[in-house]
Structures are given as C-alpha cells and as structure tokens.
Amino acid sequence: MNWNTIESGWTQYKGKAKEQWSKLSDEQIEGTAGKRDELAMRVQEAYSVSKDEAHRQMGEWQAKQEEKPVAKQV
Fold it and tell me: Cβ(12)–Cβ(68) under 8 Å?
C-alpha cells in the first residue's frame, strides 16, 4: 500500500499508528494528519532514534497495513 492511501484515510489508520508508537499522544498522532515526514519526526523525537530508523519503522508498519474500504454515503 502506498503512503498516499494511508494519508488520505488517516482517520482509519491513526489508531494502528497509536498502537505501534504508544509513546505518542493522541494529539501528536492526530497532528501529523497522516503526513509521513511529520510522523517520522515525532517518532524520532519520542523514541530517540535516527531519522533513518524512524523511516525504517514506518516502512515496516506501512507494509502491515491493509487497505480499508471507503464507507459509502447514502
């Protein structure tokens, strides 16, 4: 799945992101708006890891995500 899918459906993926990076507050997760670089920066700060490590973790997390069906409006 590409990151654009995650970003555009962030409300559906942010709970899984919170499970993965529990040191981040709900406000921090929400504040990223699903933007990859924003999330990487917050992971880097919260976990004291390098930028490369933050992006590696995000890549692993991204690979585990399944595309969520879009709710149809009636």
Answer: yes
